[in-house]
Amino acid sequence: MRNLIYLILFPIVSFGQSHVAGFEDLIKQKQFDKAEIKITVYLEKHPKDLEVLELLGDTYGHQKKWDEAIEIYENLTKADPKNAEYHYKYGGAMGMKALESNKITAIGMVNDIESALHKAAKLDPEHKNVRWALVEYYMKLPGVLGGSKNMALKYAYQLEQLSKVDGYLAKGFIFEYDEEPELAEKYYKLAIKEGGSLWCYNKLTTFYEKQKQPEKALANLEDAKEKYKRNALDYEMGKIAAQYNIELQKGVQCLQTYLKNYSPKDGVTKAWAHYRLSQIYAHKKNKAAALKYIDLALAESPKTKYFKDEKQRILKL
């Protein structure tokens, strides 16, 4: 939940002004502390620039400074009460603080979180992100505090009216969380059929992995690879082969392809691909090859505990 909410509550927004472009660049580079300082200096002279105030709130959010983010977003809702995005981010920041607080503090925040999110949804009937947040909110919230599968489904239905793909994914999430795997699989597959984005494929793959169904996860990745030809998918296929000791030769081929076509944009370093190859060769009882690849992984990242532990395991073969 943390990852999903974090991604949807703090998007990077592009503005035309040159002064904002510089702030945005710092955020894209994940230099959040520098962005905070520069934005704060700018706001000393332009305290009513709501766009930059919002950007400061986003910067606080990226740094998990929830109290500061909450204050900014609350002030924005007062400055522009009809702006759905401000209420949405206000509720989202409170939600993130609640997740990291003790139960008593979190319970005291429930009504404010719900009020802000509902306000955003009412102000903008087409705001998909807030409806996603409400789906998660009602599924994660304990029933005694107002959590409700029916309320989550209500917002999933609203999402479906705006975007069938989002609606299907939301229903997949609801049924997965409620431990109804057959229905969850049905809706994740419908999302792929309707939209077919890589994100949809990834949701189904992750679902299969959680369900301990690696064969289905691998088959789904193969389908995705036929459509998207992404190098990162080769790594994912190799990873599943290594983790679950299945389709080992296919796993080797996928990882070798990943290494051959590697680019930093793929997101996973060569060290991890070498680590997965060492796992596969360990499954094959090929100690020499396993040691070769784990040494390559350690050469690139000598402090990674997974790699060090894997080498010790291989040495005992």
Could you explain the architecture of this structure?
- This protein starts with a helix and ends with a helix.
- The chain is mainly alpha-helical and 317 residues long.
- The chain has 18 helices and no strands.
- Among the domains are: 124 residues, Serine Threonine Protein Phosphatase 5, Tetratricopeptide repeat (Alpha Horseshoe); 84 residues, Serine Threonine Protein Phosphatase 5, Tetratricopeptide repeat (Alpha Horseshoe), CATH 1.25.40.10.
- α6 runs antiparallel to α7, α8 runs antiparallel to α9 and α17 runs antiparallel to α18.
The CATH superfamily of one domain is identified as: Tetratricopeptide repeat domain
**Most strands sheet:** none
What oligomeric state do the depicted chains represent? single chain
User: What number is the mean pLDDT?
Assistant: 92
Gap from first CA to last CA: 39 Å
**CATH fold topology of one domain:** Serine Threonine Protein Phosphatase 5, Tetratricopeptide repeat
Binned, the helix content reads over 70%
Low-confidence stretches: 1-16
Q: Which shape, going by the Cα principal axes?
A: globular
- The total of helices stands at 18
Which CATH C-level class of one domain is it? Mainly Alpha
The total count of strands amounts to: 0
**Radius of gyration, rounded?**
23 Å
Corresponding CATH architecture of one domain: Alpha Horseshoe
DSSP strand content: under 5%
Write down the secondary-structure element order.
HHHHHHHHHHHHHHHHHH
Structural class: mainly alpha
